Give the backbone structure.
Amino acid sequence: MIIGGILLVIQYLHDRGINYPTGSAYELDVVDYYEIAPATILEDLNLGKTSVFQPTDQSSTVTVTPNYFDSFPWSQSDYLLVSDALNKLKSKESSDWKVYGMIFNQSCQNELAGFDSAEITYFEYYKQQESYRVHQIDIYPSSGTVSFMEKEPFERPLFGLKNINLNLLFVSADAAVQKAEEKGGKEFRLQLNNACKIIVVSKPSTGGNNWVVSYLANHSIDAFEIHINLYTGWYKISL
């Protein structure tokens, strides 16, 4: 029992240690910025085209400020299509990348469809599984911009990292928002006249196998939060 307790403490410390990627750009080295054509990139990638990321030297061009009059309500699968393509492009010969975490953002509105932006983080073990490297890709369709960041090495935690198993995923980020709407999110945002934003997060290494869907008021600390299991759909509303 004592040994088991020690292992649990070690796991707890590792799960919250600085060696874990948090998805924060402050912990990663900004490497490249790209411009994309949001109206055509999804079709181009589905057709097998690869010249869809145009490098830019101006970091200031990567912004959430809309550059297009059209909206691009991309789904989780749309964002993964783009991020997987860029991650593959930057990984060259390496192929054993796993999704560490995903964050999706959208503004509250009556007709919720897709997300305004996304942050997708990958990791890969190397050096005989002793270390891992991290890639983070931030995508802003409305401004036609993408940022790519990477960092290495991170020391491998004692029990390894957990990833999102996309092959077993039962609830997508899109479905998680719909579930949140049904269980109180819609009522919350309507009380605010849609003056809020929705953030959908999953990072199994630090937050369990859940989507955390948060409705955050724009002008107060009011919030609504629900946790939805990625693989079963089980949910719990945070009080």
